[in-house]
Amino acid sequence: MKKAITVGIDIGGTNSVMGAVDRDGNILGENRISTTDYPDIHDYVSALQEAILEMLKKIPEEIELKALGIGAPNGNYYHGTIESPPNLIWEGVTPLCKLMSKYFTEPVVLTNDANAAALGEMIYGGAKQMKNFIIYTLGTGLGSGIVINGEVLYGHTGFAGEIGHTTMVPGGRDCGCGRQGCLETYVSATGIVRTVEELFAKRRVHSPLRDVPSDQLTSKMITEAAQQGDPIALEAFDKTADMLALSIVNSVAFSSPEAIFLFGGLSNAGKYIFEPTEKYVNEKIQSIFKGTVKILPSLIPENNAAILGSSALAWKELEKINADK
Amino acid sequence: MKKAITVGIDIGGTNSVMGAVDRDGNILGENRISTTDYPDIHDYVSALQEAILEMLKKIPEEIELKALGIGAPNGNYYHGTIESPPNLIWEGVTPLCKLMSKYFTEPVVLTNDANAAALGEMIYGGAKQMKNFIIYTLGTGLGSGIVINGEVLYGHTGFAGEIGHTTMVPGGRDCGCGRQGCLETYVSATGIVRTVEELFAKRRVHSPLRDVPSDQLTSKMITEAAQQGDPIALEAFDKTADMLALSIVNSVAFSSPEAIFLFGGLSNAGKYIFEPTEKYVNEKIQSIFKGTVKILPSLIPENNAAILGSSALAWKELEKINADK
Fold first, then answer.
1. How do residues B289-322 score in pLDDT, each as one tens digit?
2. What is the CATH number of domain A128-299?
3. Are A3-122 and A128-299 equal in CATH topology?
4. Which of A155, A165, A293 sits opposite B255 (nearest CB)?
5. Contact at 8 Å (CB) between A74 and A83?
6. Across the interface, do B156 and A257 touch by the CB < 8 Å criterion?
7. CA dist., res. B285 & res. B95, Å (int)
8. Which of A224, A319, B69, B272 is deepest in the core (most CB within 10 A)?
9. B71 phi/psi in degrees, rounded to 5
10. Is B293 within 8 Å of chain A by CB?
11. Do A254 and B163 touch (CB under 8 A)?
12. Is the pLDDT of residue A5 over 80?
């Protein structure tokens, strides 16, 4: 019997990576192309298709391609489109699924990166048995994927799940979205750097982080400083966790999930982020929800997360198609 | 042919009201009992059952009872229980649906008042064609019912949809829930009174509202003062709308609904609340959601809303049962 696989594709500003993945999350083949090499979307889709076929050919086992899933910034699941993405070269609305279906007869589905991460967690990771959970992806920005009754929440527009752009501090830090005080300006790799900069101004205490030019400060350096007991770094994690906990508590009031998963860069700081976040969640949460929500690290390895997430989207789509039959 | 009806029951701290309602929202009969007269829940359920039968007997048409729906504070849909309600006399967990099923063979379902309001809007009101919307019920507190993919959002615990207890101002106004800065301390009939009190302290301008003892100030007086052009009342509505808009914008980022319905006391202030709320939502909303969400008054008449909402819960349950067949 042929082995059923899906192809997961993650479209980033620089590179597009793809992988052939079985239902257990084993990656049987991988490939990549440069995203920026193809300003014309038709050329891009053609190159993507060639790279997929090349990848599939190299797999020694007999395989059967079942579906393709794509994760892309501003990806709209309902329309199969990428809509005005801030970091991609194609402007306006790109009907990617439609263009892909010229080459593939299998279902092609698309969503944004954070929703793909939620699906990765549900299909291969720590949320296999869960019907209601949220994943916070803590990278340069903060993405979120919300699962309700076993389905990713897309909402009326297809763009639901923008927790990173909920306003936490009216008139607060400038955000890339053009507004102010969004969660991701506080809770993300760049957010914690901004918090350290604030603490430089506020505190008089010595910190090795003060020796680094502001432009070169990274969340990794802050984690390393925290591991050395640096008070500025520790306070920055505490403040980041405080804000993250406030968002988690508000998310729980909204949708009462079973778990919140933390994924990506900042969540790798381990106890420096998890311990204060749990402490503040316990302090802040409404009594009716006390003890009802777990805060967990994602079980999806970060280096494969993009491919696994988008391939999970494809598996999930096949489940839906089968349920409708 | 007998006319199919459901019975809607709303359990309040003082009275329990009930009505027999057809699928179009016509109320064919009504009755009520005192809630406080029955400290023993078994006596209460017995009296409730008698009142229902008495009501049904008086209906001249031939009817067929299909299901019963109950709206109650801290009502848990999953378990059919009322759990530690702050304003009811029964403490702990009351298995109301189970107790009712001793008297009725028809399905008996239960949820909280705001979720019932959402169902009323969906079955009889302005959300008949909508799959994704939120209702804010602006009474003494602020309740919310969230509908996603045509289903009320109950979450993992059954208690999802507590937008009134999202934290808007860390360390802000004391809330009845024991925490601080919850939305309902700003956006509700009591919230706008507190805002007027703040403005008394902040502004020097004359206002007839200053003649009213603080304990006797009501949101109705503030609405009437606004209609007379009173600057304190107008500023209080503006501030209330500003905070409401912030919550709406954050709700849109979370679940991207097609509409937000405003229901109850404060929403009766009409343009004084709707116009500034729309203005602030337009100012604050993330560009990706601009123009995607309508802010609408509930179409359910307030005096019948409790009965209609809980009867709608029963109709919705019948839809689910039929879909599962």
1. 999 999 999 999 988 999 999 999 999 999 999 8
2. 3.30.420.40
3. yes
4. A155
5. yes
6. yes
7. 42
8. B69
9. -105, 130
10. yes
11. yes
12. yes
Give residue A87's pLDDT.
Answer: 77
Residues B180/B170, Cβ–Cβ less than 8 Å: yes
Candidates B151, B160, B166; nearest CB to A250: B166
Which residue of B166, B257, B287 is in closest CB contact with A155? B257
Q: Which residues contact B278 (CB under 8 A, 6 or more apart)?
A: B295
CA distance A249 to chain B (A): 7
* Interchain contact, B158 vs A287, CB within 8 Å: no
Q: Is B161 on the interface with A (CB under 8 A)?
A: yes
B167 at interface of A, judged by CB pairs closer than 8 A: yes
The span from the CA of B87 to the CA of B16, in Å, is: 13
Helix, strand, coil content of chain A in percent (nearest 5): 45, 20, 35
CATH code of B3-112, in short, is 3.30.420.40
CA-CA-CA-CA dihedral for A206, A211, A216, A221, to nearest 10: -50
Q: A3-122: CATH homologous superfamily?
A: ATPase, nucleotide binding domain (3.30.420.40)
Looking only at the bridges linking them, the beta strands covering A27-34 and A133-138 are unpaired
Top-tier CATH class for B126-299: alpha beta
Q: Evaluate whether A182 touches A165 at the Cβ level (below 8 Å).
A: yes
Domain ranges of chain A: 3-122, 128-299
B138, two tokens: 């602006």
Whole-angstrom distance, CA of residue B32 vs CA of residue B55: 9
Residue at A243: amino acid letter: M
Q: Ramachandran region of residue B158, left (φ > 0), alpha (ψ -120 to 50) or beta?
A: left
Task: Determine contact: A135 vs chain B, CB below 8 A.
Answer: no
